[in-house]
Amino acid sequence: MTRITYSLLFKISIPFVILTLGIFYYSINPTTFAYTPQCPFHSLTGLHCPGCGSQRAFHEMLHGNIWSGLQHNFLILLAVVIIGYKAYISYTKKSKSKATHNLLHHNAAPWIILAFVLGFWILRNIPLEPFLILAP
Fold first, then answer.
1. Which one of 6, 47, 48, 60 has the lowest number of neighbouring Cβ atoms within 10 Å?
2. Burial letters 70-103, b for 16+ CB under 10 A, else e
3. pTM, two decimal places
4. How far is CA 6 from each of CA 3, 12, 18, 28, 97, rounded to the nearest angstrom?
5. pLDDT, tens digit (0-9, with 9 covering 90-100), for 33-75
6. Owning domain of residue 100
7. What is d(CA 44, CA 11) in angstroms, rounded to the nearest whole number?
8. How many structural domains compose the chain?
9. Which DSSP string do the residues of 14-48 spell out, in sequence order?
10. Confidence class of residue 86 from pLDDT cuts 50, 70 and 90?
11. Closest by alpha carbon to 52, among 42, 66, 44, 65?
């Protein structure tokens, strides 16, 4: 297969995977379904990782309960923005000769995202009143 075929296969498979996961998380409730994966970090330490509550958040958001979903994991908002931006850039790229300016390719972007995730991770484990809203 050529590079163009792999690129086309990738662009077709990503929406299929997203749709499949969407149907799965729409149809099952992670709080009552025994076979959804549990967070190993939370199981070992009792602390919440940045991803804790994401499955419940997806489930709630797919059912239209946006605020309830965000209460499980506010970081899901960052993930939706980044994935949406990446999809927008990927699907609107006209040609290889006319490259679209991608903010995620800036040298500071991964460091900013990492600092945001680490900050969220630390703040959601502080057992004081203003930070309790960040815990799932």
1. 6
2. bbbbbbbeebeeeeeeeeeeeeeeeeeeeeeeee
3. 0.72
4. 5, 10, 18, 32, 19
5. 878 888 899 989 999 999 898 888 989 988 999 998 889 999 9
6. 3-134
7. 37
8. 1
9. HHHHHHHHHHHHHHS-TTT-TTSPPPHHHHHHSPP
10. confident
11. 42
Q: Which two tokens stand for residue 16?
A: 């299929």
Residue with tokens 């995730």: 117
Please give the C-alpha separations between residue 106 and each of 39, 69, 80, 91, 133, in angstroms, as whole numbers.
31, 30, 19, 19, 32
90: which 2 tokens? 């990927």
Residue pair 34/22 in contact (Cβ under 8 Å)? The answer is no
What is the rounded CA–CA span in Å between residue 65 and residue 60?
Answer: 5
